[in-house]
Amino acid sequence: MADTRRALIGAAWLEAGETFTVHAPATGEPLARVADCGPELATQAVDAAAAALPGWRAMAAHERADLMRAAARELTARADTIAATMTAEQGKPLAEARGEVLSGADHLLWAAEETRRLYGETVPGAHADNRIWLLPEPVGVVAGITPWNFPVSMITRKLGPALAAGCTVVLKPAEQTPLSAIEVAEAFVAAGLPPGVFNLVTTSRPAGFGQAVMTDPRVRKVSFTGSTEVGRELIRQSAHDVKRLSVELGGHAPVLVFPDADPVAAARAVARSKFLNAGQACTSPNRIFVHSSLAAAFTAELVRQAEAAELGPLIDEPAVAKVSRHVEDAVARGATVLTGGRRPEGAGTFYPATVLGGVSEDMLVCREETFGPVAPVLEFDDCDQVVERANATPYGLTAYVWTNDLSRTVRVAEELQFGMVTVNGGPLAPPQAPFGGIKSSGYGREGGHHGVADYLEYKYLSVGLGR
């Protein structure tokens, strides 16, 4: 078991007096002891970020971009090592983990280019001797809080736009996956990022970190990805000094497979989305509505894909318990397990790819986010009513549509109450696109120029020229 009692604060890797243990979900065995930082170290990290802010925001845009590109190169060069760490502590297959590291580097590269495009505006003056300009400025010190399901890409999706805008960052990774975050921080240090621009605080006591940054007036923005319950609490706490927030919360994504779609192609793509990361993604399809004319062909292919899927373990025992509870509830209410549906014997928190038929909307799988590899299939006949059924959730992150009818594509996409709609398998999270949701799935965007704009203030400058 490794001993990594360090947090990155300013120019130094500091040891914390207390540690917590990270376990491998595949075996349950301990992997490492990690620094368990209290609120005092969180405040020291804010000190370092505040001290580094003037120099970083004043740095020429192309110089900031060069450092960000160097960090992306370091991540790419270390992709195999970081992926192995991610697989050990989070459980996703090695190929998925490596792909995530490379995707994280892509997000940094995109954001680096955006440093050159932080344009202001010239507004027509109120009279001949008046000039009005809008000047983009970084919001200030940012606190980032990232989840365990994508422990590298979620970091760079926050770091990239924040650094591009000229902000400095204090980051707290999930307590389940701090080792990947430590290796990301090492890559940034190796790239030559100035001390204090990126600070890493690991802890098993997230409430203490949250209290430290939410009550510190120097922290002007918090970017959080995680549960809706925690997001709501951060929103409440932000009122004290009116912090800006970006919150990417839970999801309950519907899939709508219309009668003109190719059922086999749709099933294969739905399986890729559903079983990615063992279903542990906020964008994971959670309610799969299939027109009754396609249900047999679609379900047969989905079962084939599920039986061929190679999944890692779920993150921990509570995750397995939730998935098991959802499947058991569905069966008790009349659903049929078409494949999977039972935890295998042996070590680790594994659960097989599972397909349920005969599903109805009173079941837990249709009322709660499962966050696991369970694909519930619901049939429909009324193509207008199914949109209402898809919208019947407080969440609004992602929806999936399968149709070859252009008119239906436009109408349905406009009617769906979700921040992101993908049609016929279009990608969801490339670095140039603004990822994010509405309703109880949160607000704010990550990716593209919209994501950088979330880290900027626009100063209104009105000048009287005089005579």
UniProtKB/TrEMBL annotation:
Stretches assigned to the Aldehyde dehydrogenase domain: 15-460
One Pfam family, short name: Aldedh
EC class of the enzyme, as a word: oxidoreductase
A single MF term (Gene Ontology): oxidoreductase activity
Alphabetized InterPro entries for the sequence: Ald_DH/histidinol_DH, Ald_DH_C, Ald_DH_N, Aldehyde_DH_dom, Aldehyde_DH_Superfamily
Keyword Cytoplasm: no
Top-level taxon of origin: Bacteria
EC number(s) stated in the UniProt entry for this protein: 1.2.1.-
Assigned keywords, A-Z: Oxidoreductase
Name of the featured protein: NAD-dependent succinate-semialdehyde dehydrogenase
UniProt source species: Nonomuraea spiralis
